[in-house]
Design goal:
It is globular, with a radius of gyration of 21 Å. With 226 residues, it is an alpha+beta fold. It has one domain. The chain is 38% helix and 20% strand. 22% of the residues are buried. The protein is built from eight helices and seven strands. A hairpin with a 4-residue loop joins strand 1 and strand 2. Strands 1, 2, 3, 4, 5, 6 and 7 form a seven-stranded antiparallel β-sheet that branches.
């Protein structure tokens, strides 16, 4: 039986993905460590300002963590699969990928922004919005896709290496971005009806579907999507 091609694929592709996954486990560990340090500092520095404001971090398994800053909860999680950047991605314009296509394989850490009350009141239908995706390859090089400065400052996969200092910068920008965006009033049509079940108890009112609008238009608005 001819199995040389399978062996080559296992050596060249499967082993590569395993190498990236092992590295990414260290990356998400570093994310959690930096995150805890940042939250501890924020708690200390903000302690005398307003005790009503909740600032906390919570580990959610090996590959995820939640951070609550006031009315916002940021969810960080690493996908357990490794992905290859599509060939029409802008990063392929660099010699870094053209000379070594293996550099196009990355693990991804997602950062989502939810309302803290979505978790507090168990509103399972509430929406969270993707703030950023952090791509990390086998050499520890990275780039970020995201909103605002997050999608501009970290685009150089060839030269940017993800160390704890860079992780801290990305985390701070994610938190700043989440805090700066306010909860928008939903369109009247979205809340003009309610069921008896929703209104039966006062607590049920808190379960009406809610979500931040981060750079998106509601479906019934005629403006172009941002």
């Amino acid at each position: 039986m001819e199995d040389k091609k399978i062996i080559e694929l296992l050596k060249n592709k499967v082993c590569l993905k395993q190498e990236i996954f092992q590295r990414s486990k260290g990356v998400i560990k570093d994310f959690k460590e930096v995150l805890n340090e940042l939250i501890e500092k924020l708690v200390k520095d903000f302690a005398n300002h307003d005790k009503r404001v909740i600032i906390s971090a919570e580990e959610k398994g090996e590959y995820a963590a939640n951070v609550t800053i006031g009315s916002d909860t940021l969810v960080f999680f690493m996908h357990t699969n490794v992905f290859k950047l599509p060939e029409d991605h802008s990063q392929w314009q660099m010699s870094y990928l053209k000379d070594n296509p293996d550099n196009a394989y990355c693990s991804i850490i997602h950062v989502y922004n939810f309302l803290s009350d979505s978790f507090r009141y168990d509103r399972e239908d509430d929406l969270g919005y993707l703030l950023a995706r952090v791509f990390v390859n086998k050499e520890g090089h990275f780039f970020v896709e995201g909103h605002d400065r997050l999608g501009i400052e970290y685009r150089d996969l060839m030269h940017d290496v993800l160390d704890k200092e860079k992780i801290a910068e990305v985390l701070i920008k994610c938190i700043e971005y989440a805090i700066e965006f306010d909860l928008y009033t939903p369109p009247y049509q979205a809340v003009e009806t309610a069921t008896v079940y929703q209104l039966k108890e006062v607590n049920q009112i808190m379960k009406m579907k809610t979500g931040k609008r981060l750079g998106f238009k509601f479906q019934n608005e005629q403006d172009q999507i941002i």
